[in-house]
Amino acid sequence: MNPVRTLILPVAVALGLLRLDAEPRPLPRSAPESQGVSSEAILDFVNDADRSLDSLHSLMILRHGRVIAEGWWTPYDARTRHELYSLSKSFTSTAVGFAVAEGKLGVDDELTKLFPSELPAEVSSNLRAMRLRDLLCMSAGHGVEIGTGPNAMTTRAFLAHPVPFKPGTRFLYNTPATFMLSAAVQRATGQTALEYLRPRLLDPLGIEDPTWDSNVEGISLGGYGLSVRTEDIAKLGQLYLQKGRWEGRQILPESWVDLATSRQTSNGSNPRSDWEQGYGFQFWRCRNGAFRGDGAFGQFCVVMPAQDAVVVTTAGLKDMQAVLDRVWQHLLPAMKPGRLARNPKAHDALTRRLGSLRLPAVPGEATTPELWKWAGRRFVFPPNEQKLESLVLRDAGPGGLVLELGFDGRTDGVSCTFQEWHPGRVRWGTFPERAVASCGAWTAPDVYEARLCFRETPYTLTLRMKFGDHGVHIEPAFNVFFGATQLPPLTGEMR
């Protein structure tokens, strides 16, 4: 019998004790000092991050199970879900943990037996040896990943991919391996990972209205594609900090938490890198005895067992190590074993600072004397990979412009206000229509810069538009991207 199964209590028993129809409750709140943390140290962290990191979108710090600091950089807010990217992997691991506990899967189950109808004509010995455990700890045996797009990641494509190394012997960060974990959950339970997690994790923790993208087979992507709110991430971290207990009930077996968050495979030896401290079951080990789930561009759930703390960020960052460096620099030494003396002045300063966070608007002027030349005129673009067909500039009064962007014969209007973020919805290129907040300014008499923050994602798109007598030249650039952030320029003719 699988030793993991014998260690883990049946989750179904625990689920029977849960009041799944209870109203979801937010995490309790507390002043930092009452939980042994200095408000001044948190303020130092926030100011340092705001000054030197470009940019955080949200922050939540928990100590002893209570939220002691939280803030969102406008136009991000507490109510809007944020795309997690690879932080989704830790939720997938949790789904596997439940399935193992219920006897539906085992960590030593072989993939060839889970997916017999999707196997290639010739099954290599390394593929035959591949187990769920190897996928969980990113040692599937691949030399490179298969494609990670929703159309590329399929069970057949994964199983047909060459396995040059013996599974379990070589670490390779492998998003399609996590997809296969999601596929295994769906194969074993008849439900997508999202559906399966709902009564076991999401409802008990009060995680409402999550979304999880699927591949062409209808399988939750597993390795990315999950969107939840900042507090939802914090709840997952707190559940793992509490060894799977929630509101006095063991909903996720402690033995799974121990396996998932301990070092299962080596991934380097650099003592200064939080990416070379070992890897668990879809959780990274960190310096200072911590562990984390993380996603591209700064989506973090850092769990610090020795300090009984959780630090959560969402972000659009190029340098993810810089966030963790500042956690260790400012927050770690500030966490004391006992209560601190009340410090109303410092706490009030922190509260005011957290309530005034905002991404910077475009610097420049509200208008230009040249606007009459271009307002209301239509600029037409030749076929381009960003799929922009037309642009119309509308004067919306003092300090405001509306950009009418034409895609696929349809026009989306984007209101760009001066020094303020204006909510709306828009498409760009292959991006589907998404919630956006936008602002803009004239940086020269003939140059308008619009900033479009896709506020359910890490992405902000800047459009630098230089107008002339006969057309417009646009230089689009993202803050972060998989690949080049500077997109090909676009030149439109004025009609």
List keywords for this structure.
Lipocalin; 6-stranded antiparallel β-sheet; alpha+beta; 14 helices; disordered N terminus; 495 residues; globular; Beta-lactamase; 10-stranded antiparallel β-sheet; single chain
Percent of residues in β-strands:
15-25%
Number of self-contained structural domains:
2
Please describe the biggest sheet, giving its number of strands, its sense, and whether it closes into a barrel.
Answer: 10 strands, antiparallel
Number of DSSP strands? 21
Topology:
Layout: H1 3-7, H2 11-16, H3 39-52, E1 56-63, E2 66-72, E3 82-83, H4 88-101, H5 111-114, H6 125-129, H7 132-136, H8 155-160, H9 175-189, H10 193-205, E4 211-212, E5 226-228, H11 230-241, E6 245-246, E7 249-250, H12 254-261, E8 284-285, E9 291-295, E10 299-304, E11 309-315, H13 321-331, H14 344-355, E12 378-380, E13 390-395, E14 400-407, E15 410-417, E16 422-428, E17 431-444, E18 447-453, E19 460-467, E20 471-478, E21 490-494
Antiparallel strand pairs: 1-2, 1-11, 3-5, 4-5, 6-7, 8-9, 9-10, 10-11, 12-13, 12-21, 13-14, 14-15, 16-17, 17-18, 18-19, 19-20, 20-21
